């Protein structure tokens, strides 16, 4: 049974005090997760250790980094390595978020290196893919996303792909208030799973958790997560409000 996951991406938001308060409020909400469910918090680098310490002793709650370097170590001022993240006890790292693809010009080849170095250091990537508005308007989104998967992931072994986590981001629905319809979300998630099956076989593809990452809110989470191939969400703005994100977690199937 593949994992159902609510992943929060706090992005570059919150002071330390606000981050601690948000975490405390979420813990006080009495979140109950089933054996096949996880909640993962993508925390800004300065707060990772503090928030991870707050989650110690909890069940199925984890911290993720929002990025890592493609390099092992060296003269890369301002960068954070996968080895560093492993050394502070992290298990997850977000790789290839659409904002980093756009603002930091991260291409598919670079992201393949980041995926590799994450695995080398015992980190599970949460790999982001998805199409911008102009691609959706020309109805070439399936080919676009398939190319992202092929160039960044398809060098991996079947064992590495087993239980992998992919987050599909319709970029045109991030921070815009627009949301893909339930049918659009299911259609792309099913396509991603079919592409994985064509490379690794249906048995491996069915272990991969595919999260939806486009303006998920408490009001729409249950309907989106209810789609057969949607295994949860990568949540931005709504994850900064404890009551919203607690309700999103409760919407996991």
Written overview of the protein:
The protein has helices spanning 16-28, 48-55, 82-87, 98-103, 108-120, 133-137, 141-153, 158-161, 182-200, 202-205, 218-225, 242-250, and strands at 4-9, 37-43, 61-65, 92-95, 124-129, 165-168, 209-212, 232-235. By secondary structure, the protein is of the alpha/beta class. The chain has a single domain (4-250), classed as Aldolase class I (TIM Barrel, Alpha-Beta Barrel), CATH 3.20.20. It has an eight-stranded parallel beta sheet with strand order 7-6-5-4-3-2-1-8. α3 links the parallel β3 and β4 (92-95). The chain is globular and about 45 Å long.
Fraction of residues in helices? 40-55%
Distance between the termini: 12 Å
Task: Quickly count the domains.
Answer: 1
CATH domain class: Alpha Beta
Fraction in beta strands: 15-25%
What is the N-to-C order of secondary-structure elements (H for helix, E for strand)?
EHEHEHEHHEHHHEHHEHEH
Summarize the main sheet. Answer: 8 strands, parallel
Average residue-wise pLDDT: 96
Q: From the helix content, strand content and strand pairing, which structural class follows?
A: alpha/beta
Strand order, sheet with most strands = 7-6-5-4-3-2-1-8
> Any idea of the CATH topology?
TIM Barrel
Shape: globular
């Amino acid at each position: 049974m593949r994992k159902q996951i609510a992943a929060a991406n706090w992005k570059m938001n919150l002071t330390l005090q606000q981050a601690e308060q948000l975490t405390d409020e979420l813990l006080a909400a009495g979140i109950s997760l089933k054996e096949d469910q996880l909640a993962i918090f993508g925390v800004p680098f300065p707060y990772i250790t503090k928030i991870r310490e707050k989650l110690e002793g909890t069940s199925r709650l984890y911290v993720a980094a929002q990025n890592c370097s493609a390099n092992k170590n060296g003269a890369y001022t301002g960068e954070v390595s996968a080895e560093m993240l492993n050394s502070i006890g992290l298990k997850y790292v977000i790789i290839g978020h659409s904002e980093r693809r756009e603002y930091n010009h991260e291409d598919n080849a670079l992201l393949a290196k980041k995926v590799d170095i994450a695995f080398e250091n015992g980190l599970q990537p949460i790999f982001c893919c998805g199409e911008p508005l102009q691609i959706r308007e020309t109805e070439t989104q399936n080919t676009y996303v398939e190319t992202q998967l092929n160039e960044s992931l398809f060098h991996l072994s079947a064992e590495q792909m087993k239980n992998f986590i992919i987050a599909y981001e319709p970029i045109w629905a991030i921070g815009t208030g627009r949301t893909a319809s339930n049918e659009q979300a299911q259609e792309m998630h099913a396509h991603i799973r079919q592409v994985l099956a064509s490379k690794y076989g249906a048995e491996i593809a069915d272990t991969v958790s595919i999260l939806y990452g486009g303006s998920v809110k408490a009001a729409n989470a249950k309907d989106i997560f209810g789609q057969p191939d949607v295994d949860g969400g990568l949540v931005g703005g709504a994850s900064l409000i404890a009551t919203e994100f607690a309700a999103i977690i409760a919407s996991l199937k």
